[in-house]
Amino acid sequence: MFLETNILNFRIFITCVINLLVMSNKIVIANWKMNPKTPAEARRIYKGIKKGIAKVKGVDTYVCPPFIFLSELSKLGVTLKTRLGVQDAFYEETGAYTGQTSPEMAKAYKAKLTILGHSERRILGEDNKLIGRKLLHAIANGFTAVLCVGESERNEEGDYYTFIREELETALVGVKRGDLKKVIIAYEPIWAIGKRAEEAIDTKALYEMILFIRKVLIEKFGRTPALGVPILYGGSVKENNALEFIEKGGADGLLIGGASLSPEQFIGITKSAALVK
Ligand code: PGA
């Protein structure tokens, strides 16, 4: 198949590139989604994570709680190891936008990063254009934007590659080469989210998708800026499978949902990420 040949030809070049990229810190992001239920519980989890990863080297960690807990957690402090982020951020600073929160507001609580385009928001109606608008506004405000992409199913013909290309190309319209250092891509196949560890993606399929995403970024932005963009994996990452996605799958880090609500699991995942130099 033409696409597969292309990907394979590209693999040798990218392997060299990956060797260069492993010099940078891995990135592990906790996406708490609409959890936990109380501020007391949020504080307990955050404190546990903060303490457990304080001495882990070589990993940048972000915790993204619901907005309502951001103020509480920022009072507990952020460190170079544990930073705060948000799960979404709107494309205007203030105004008549019921229910929305802007990066400018989140900034006051030490948040430096926002997840954008998560599949659980796309399913509520967000499209690539809207996500792209939010992304431009977030990076203009000094935020790092984590753009989530991922297909809902796979077929023999490989149509999902076209789908991922479209997600990337549309959501990144207007992003300048120089802005790319504020962008992280999180590949999260929808079919692998919220499952058991055994149901996550296999590392060969992940490796191929990461190469493909890198290729799309190079085509759009040129080699040098595109090579600096971290590409994370998310979808049923647990303590017992985290290592393989980085070591064999070639991910630059991980986006963690369910397991990030357990300090033990999240610390274990962060330590696994630290093992890959
Ligand atoms: P999961 O979620 O780790 O629970 O699969 C990942 C995500 O949705 O970001």
List its salient traits.
277 residues; alpha/beta; TIM Barrel; eight-stranded parallel barrel; 8 strands; 43% helix; binds 2-phosphoglycolic acid
Question: In words, what does this structure look like?
Answer:
It is a single chain. β7, α10 and β8 form a beta-alpha-beta unit. α7 (159-171) crosses α8 (203-221). It is globular, with a radius of gyration of 18 Å. An eight-stranded parallel β-barrel has the order 1-2-3-4-5-6-7-8, surrounded by five helices. It is 43% helix and 15% strand. It has one domain: Aldolase class I (TIM Barrel), CATH 3.20.20. It has helices at residues 2-21, 39-53, 70-75, 103-107, 119-122, 128-140, 159-171, 203-221, 223-227, 242-247, 263-275, and strands at residues 26-31, 59-64, 82-86, 111-116, 144-149, 183-187, 231-234, 253-256. With 277 residues, the protein is α/β, with parallel strands linked by helices. It is built from eleven helices and eight strands. The site of 2-phosphoglycolic acid has 13 residues, from β8.
Task: List strands and helices in order, with pairings.
Elements: H1 2-21, E1 26-31, H2 39-53, E2 59-64, H3 70-75, E3 82-86, H4 103-107, E4 111-116, H5 119-122, H6 128-140, E5 144-149, H7 159-171, E6 183-187, H8 203-221, H9 223-227, E7 231-234, H10 242-247, E8 253-256, H11 263-275
Parallel strand pairs: 1-2, 1-8, 2-3, 3-4, 4-5, 5-6, 6-7, 7-8
Helix pairs in contact: 1-8, 2-11, 6-7, 7-8
The structure holds 2-phosphoglycolic acid.
**Uncertain ranges:** none
* Averaged pLDDT: 93
Bin the strand percentage. 15-25%
Helix content: 40-55%
User: Largest beta sheet: what is the strand line-up?
Assistant: 1-2-3-4-5-6-7-8
The succession of helices and strands, N to C, reads HEHEHEHEHHEHEHHEHEH
Secondary structural class: alpha/beta
The tally of strands reads: 8
Overall shape: it is globular
What kind of sheet is the major sheet?
8 strands, parallel, barrel
Bound molecules: 2-phosphoglycolic acid
Name of the CATH first level: Alpha Beta
Radius of gyration: 18 Å
Total count of helical runs of at least 4 residues? 11
Q: What is the number of domains?
A: 1
Termini separation: 34 Å
Supply the CATH superfamily name. Answer: Aldolase class I
